[in-house]
Amino acid sequence: MARTPRLYLPGCAQHVIQRGNNRQACLHNATDFRAYLSFLKDAAAKHHVAIHAFVLMTNHVHLLVTPEGEKSVSRMMQDLGRRYVQHFNYSHNRTGTLWEGRYKSALVDSENYLLKVYRYIEMNPVRAGIVSNAANYPWSSYQGNALGKPIRMLTPHLEYLRLGKAGEDRQGAYRALFIGRMPAHELATIREACNKGGALGDEHFLARAGVRAAGLVGSER
User: Fold this and answer.
1) CATH superfamily of 13-181
2) Burial of 204 by CB count in 10 Å (0-12 exposed, 13-18 middle, 19+ buried)?
3) Which domain of life is it from (predicted)?
4) For 137, which of 47, 93, 125, 203 could close a Cys bridge (C-beta 3.0–4.6 Å)?
5) pLDDT tens-digit readout, 199-221
């Protein structure tokens, strides 16, 4: 069966998910987390992908990125996956596959969903019950985006920069986005779009992305 073509729009952000095979752990310890981030930084720079947000969980990873070209994300993920699997298999005395097939991705309408996806990604450890505050999880971009910690691989998206003129203003406005819980329908819509390889946005954005023609759902309901 032919693979479904990935959606792409020039300059459009993408939400990317990479899962361990059979949802098994693919990051065991701090060395693994650091290695993944190091390889991600290198691959993103090599293939011209801007990283806006990320979270590394034990059995999956979320990224919010903007690629320079249509193949930039796929090449980044191939490069990253290859290097990390070599590291993981050697470190843990194992062989074979690590990832659950192809990574999943969805286009993100910046005006309507970009900051919601930032929040969705960085709140993963809180929803999973690992920490009570996103600031306490060391393997996400929250400390950079919300607290100003230098994370060299991060590139602020224009919608993030619009939160305030100065860094402290932006960080304060960003932290305010995390107050309370995300509505259940927003969580479901973000998950569905990525799992189906669709898009997040209004009707105009979906039409521009060709989502209707592909039979993929990503609109807010």
Assistant:
1) Transposase IS200-like (3.30.70.1290)
2) exposed
3) Bacteria
4) 125
5) 998 888 888 887 653 444 444 43
